Structure formats: structure tokens, C-alpha cells
């Protein structure tokens, strides 16, 4: 992004955050000083407009952009909390696909397709929200509350029962709670644990001495191999990573490569970055998970890079380089 384009993005963010008389006069002076400023501002507005319900998309790292994003997260948090606490039991499909599931005695298995999100009420009055391309196997009796995360990611609103802890397993990783809300995302190297309410314990069954206790706003990565469990208190980051519950991807200075990887989790039509150098560009903004084309066009407008649309791919950068 050129210096003028970056200035235009910053002006747009300022005007969205504050529209005082002094701010407007300063903007008009900048806008009329150079015809290139006018073109850059139009491009910035195009990028902003193309973000469906987005707050901002910018290569920079401005304070106003962060404030806008924080406000969005707070609004999303309230909406999501109300939705899931009230127990939305209706399956929500993002792509029209139907998740598979079956019940056998006290056991329940739920598997979602690519791009699908389901909110599932459990026998103990807990709720499991299952993300894209994921599977959970539930074993629920009066003596045990166990969920095996076979693959993918799920968020759990756990009904309180001090006599029967609620345990989620992801391979050798265990997460235990009594009454709380948390998510687990399984990776080959371990599992991410995000806590939105209450307290949970997390550990590797092969290394119980490294058991950690996490409270609301904490996130941790519990590795498969015997390593230190990385724990951090980042409540806004926890909410950002759980924006999928509201069918959104929220970016807060994530790289283009990271953003593309997230979109590709939810869509059969994959995004490809043809020029590896573009992958490091930083983005801020919010999108629906099932609108990769909108995202790519916004990247085109913000970073001034070509975008090519085919039946099965969306190429960011020079199309020939992706062949």
C-alpha cells in the first residue's frame, strides 16, 4: 500500500470514529490538496463498503481501527451470549449442507460439513456449538459427562453439576469443567482452549504435572508432546477467535495468509495467494464466513492487488503465478 493510500485509510477510520467540525475541515484540506488523495479516498471507501457489516480493513495498525474492532467484538459478544445461553437448539447451516448425527442409548454423535455450524442441546442441559468440518461424540449418564472432540472445534455452555464434571477430550488432551463456557479446537500438535465463563482445568494425560487452571478471558495451547503449556489472558482475543459462533471471521492485524486459512476452513471454493510476499500483509476487519469473494474484493481494493475468480478458486495476486 502506498503512503497516500495509507493516509486515506487512516482518514476514513478517523471520520468513522469521530465526525467533529475540526476533523471535517482537516480532512477537506487534505482531500483537496492533491487529486491523488481523492482517488485514494475513493478506493478506501470501496474497501470499507465491500466489507459486509465490517468495521474497517486496513494495511495499517491504527488506534481507531482497533477501537472500532473492539466495539464490534463487544456487540457480538452480547448477541452471541444471549443466543447460546437461551439454548438455540435449531441447527444452523451456513452452506445449505445438512450435518450428520445419531443417538445410541446415552451417546450422541454430531458431525458438521464444511461451512456448517450447529448448536446442539445435550442431555444434561448443556449446549455444544460445533464449528465447521468438526465432529463430537458425547457420552452422557448420571455418572459421566464426556465429549470426545474427534476433529475440528466446538464451544460448550456447560450446565452446572458439581457431582459430575464435564470433560472434553481431544486425543491425549483433557479439559474439565463443572459449570462454565469454553471452546476446544483440535490440531495435530495439540489443542487450543478458550474460556469465556467460569473456570476450567486443562492437561495432557501423558504429562499431568503441567495441568493448568484457566478462568474467563484466558486462552491456552496444550501440546501433544511434553512441553510448557502456553497460557495468556487476552479476553478480546478470545472473543475474536470465537466470532465463528456469530458466523463471522474477525481480523485484528492478522496476516493475509492467516485470514485466507480461516476462510478456507468454511468454504469449498478455496482462496489461493499466488505471491507469497502478499501473505504477510496485515488486515483488520470483519466478514461473514461464507463470503470469501467479498473478502477477496476488499483485499483487492485495500492492497491494490489483482484478484481472479474461477469456478473452484479465488486467486489473490497474479493468476499465472498460482498455476
Topology:
Layout: H1 3-17, H2 21-33, H3 35-50, H4 63-85, E1 100-104, E2 107-111, E3 118-121, E4 127-130, E5 135-140, E6 145-151, E7 153-157, E8 166-170, E9 173-177, E10 181-187, E11 190-197, E12 199-204, E13 207-215, E14 218-223, E15 230-233, H5 235-241, E16 248-255, H6 256-266, E17 270-273, E18 282-288, H7 292-303, E19 307-309, E20 313-316
Parallel strand pairs: 6-8, 17-20
Antiparallel strand pairs: 1-2, 2-5, 3-4, 4-7, 5-6, 7-10, 8-9, 9-12, 10-11, 11-14, 12-13, 14-15, 16-18, 19-20
Helix pairs in contact: 1-3, 1-4, 2-3, 3-7
Q: How would you describe the overall organization of this protein?
A:
The chain has 323 residues and is of the alpha+beta class. The chain is built from seven helices and 20 strands. The chain has an eight-stranded mixed β-sheet with strand order 1-2-5-6-8-9-12-13, with no helix packed on it. α1 (3-17) crosses α3 (35-50) and α3 (35-50) packs antiparallel against α7 (292-303). The relative contact order is 0.12.
| Number of DSSP E strands | 20
Oligomer: single chain
Percent in helix: 25-40%
Number of helices: 7
Distance between the termini: 25 Å
The gross shape turns out to be elongated
Biggest sheet, spatial arrangement of strands: 1-2-5-6-8-9-12-13
Q: Could you report the average pLDDT, rounded to the nearest whole number?
A: 81
> How would a textbook summarize the main sheet?
8 strands, mixed
**Rg result:** 22 Å
Strand content: 25-35%
Q: What is the structural class?
A: alpha+beta
Series of H and E elements = HHHHEEEEEEEEEEEEEEEHEHEEHEE
Query: Regions with pLDDT < 50 over 5+ consecutive residues?
Result: 49-65, 75-99
Amino acid at each position: 500500500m502506498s503512503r497516500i493510500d495509507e493516509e486515506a485509510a487512516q482518514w476514513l477510520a478517523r471520520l468513522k470514529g469521530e465526525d467533529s467540525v475540526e476533523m471535517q475541515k482537516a480532512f477537506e484540506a487534505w482531500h483537496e490538496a492533491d487529486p491523488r488523495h481523492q482517488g485514494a479516498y475513493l478506493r478506501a471507501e470501496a474497501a470499507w463498503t465491500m466489507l459486509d457489516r465490517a468495521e474497517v480493513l486496513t494495511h495499517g495498525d491504527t488506534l481507531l481501527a482497533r477501537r472500532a474492532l473492539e466495539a464490534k467484538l463487544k456487540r457480538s459478544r452480547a448477541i452471541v451470549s444471549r443466543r447460546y445461553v437461551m439454548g438455540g437448539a435449531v441447527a444452523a447451516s451456513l452452506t445449505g449442507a445438512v450435518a450428520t448425527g445419531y443417538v445410541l442409548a446415552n451417546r450422541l454423535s454430531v458431525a458438521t460439513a464444511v461451512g456448517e455450524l450447529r448448536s446442539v442441546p445435550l442431555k444434561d442441559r448443556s449446549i455444544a456449538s460445533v464449528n465447521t468440518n468438526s465432529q463430537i461424540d458425547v457420552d452422557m449418564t448420571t455418572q459421566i459427562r464426556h465429549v470426545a472432540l474427534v476433529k475440528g472445534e466446538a464451544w460448550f455452555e456447560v450446565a452446572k453439576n458439581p457431582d459430575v464434571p464435564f470433560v472434553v477430550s481431544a486425543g491425549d488432551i483433557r479439559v474439565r469443567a463443572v459449570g462454565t463456557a469454553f471452546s476446544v479446537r483440535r490440531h495435530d500438535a495439540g489443542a487450543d482452549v478458550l474460556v469465556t465463563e467460569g473456570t476450567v482445568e486443562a492437561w495432557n494425560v501423558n504429562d499431568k504435572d503441567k495441568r493448568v487452571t484457566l478462568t474467563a478471558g484466558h486462552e491456552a495451547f496444550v501440546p501433544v508432546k511434553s512441553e510448557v503449556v502456553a497460557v495468556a489472558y487476552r479476553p478480546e482475543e478470545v472473543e475474536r477467535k470465537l466470532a465463528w459462533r456469530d458466523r463471522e471471521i474477525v481480523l485484528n492485524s492478522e496476516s493475509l495468509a492467516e485470514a485466507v486459512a480461516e476462510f478456507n476452513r468454511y468454504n469449498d471454493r478455496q482462496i489461493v495467494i499466488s505471491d507469497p510476499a502478499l501473505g504477510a500483509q496485515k488486515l483488520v476487519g470483519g466478514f461473514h464466513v461464507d463470503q470469501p469473494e467479498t473478502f477477496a474484493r476488499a483485499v483487492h481494493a485495500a492492497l491494490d492487488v489483482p484478484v481472479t475468480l474461477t469456478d473452484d478458486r479465488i486467486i489473490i495476486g497474479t493468476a499465472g503465478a498460482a498455476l
